[in-house]
User: Fold this.
Amino acid sequence: MLLGQKIEIRPNAKQEEYFLKSVGIKRFVWNNCLSEWSDAYKRGYKPDEIYIQFFYKCLRERNTWIDEVSARIGRGAVDDLLLAFQRFFKKQSEYPKFKKRGVHDSFSIREKEKFSINGRKLKIEKLKTKINMRQKPRFEGIQKQITISCKGGKWFASILTDTSKNPFIDKVPAENQGGVGIDMGIKHFAALSDGTIYEANQPLKKKLKKLAKLQRSLARKQRLSNRWHKVKEKIAKLYYYITCKRQAVLHEFTDYITKTYKLIVIEDLNISGMSKNHHLTRAILDVGMSELRRQLEYKSKFRGCELVIADRWFASSKICSQCGLKKDVLSLAERTFICSNGCISLSRDKNAAKNLLNYGRDWIERDQKRMPELSKCA
Ligand SMILES: [Zn+2]
Assistant:
């Protein structure tokens, strides 16, 4: 199985220089080969792989600085272009376009001998020093390809790893590890049925506020003016930071949950409906919820957990998790659930999480009762 992971890297000045040079060389080779292809075609030739490989050889001889970085980078640009033409001829994509500076700046190394990763250190051919990575790769296996890219002023390494075996296989939870209901909220990040509350990540919350402020500021600026562009750029950077940070928080959370519990119950949030809200900060929260579900789904599968998604109409916050009595109305302002039977007085979110766990247990029980019937039929 091939798994990809994108990790932020922190190059020093020398290393960044190497990256910028590599990105430039990739663009130079691509653009030159593309224009040669088009010109040759206009002159009546039918350019093909051999033609362009020969052209590249000459290009390299004329521009020796191409060899100041790993030879795989220029080579990779030629391969990419040939592939782009193949796709074009199969009518799978449009005619290849010239690359512009600053648009999707990246380069790849596809030979595993030409780069290596050791812990949080990345080594690339023709670069003497090792590059710091912000985290270790999550997957074990053979690292087949690395793509270095730049976005929002930051550098990233996307690593493609052939795991050939399930990377989570040794982390399957024990059978007796119990279940958990998770109530996702806006006030808290999440409440678990065992009473644990995960507060919203504070730095993230502050950044969200800052983002909302910038958005208001942008609305006051004259469209396409200098100041407007400046604010717009700030927003793009901040937005990017927030989504990365949020992703990291979610991975940590879903790792913990799938390693600790056998049965996991969450709500079926009406995500498509929620995202119609145009407020950007709100939208980020919504995206977080669908991302949480996506991560829980695949990690549960890997680690052998049972993920139950409660029915959309299941009123998790209106039911007493002790006796099952349902309230007709519960305003959003009521943060504590007080049962009319007098059995509990519990935080609204914790009560909802407990109800979700009950829902999951009932669901499993019904499922198991159904199983013998099904086998009888068979
Ligand atoms: Zn009750």
About this structure: The two ends are 34 Å apart (CA to CA). Residues 271-276, 374-378 have pLDDT under 50 and may be disordered. The first helix runs from residue 13 to 42.
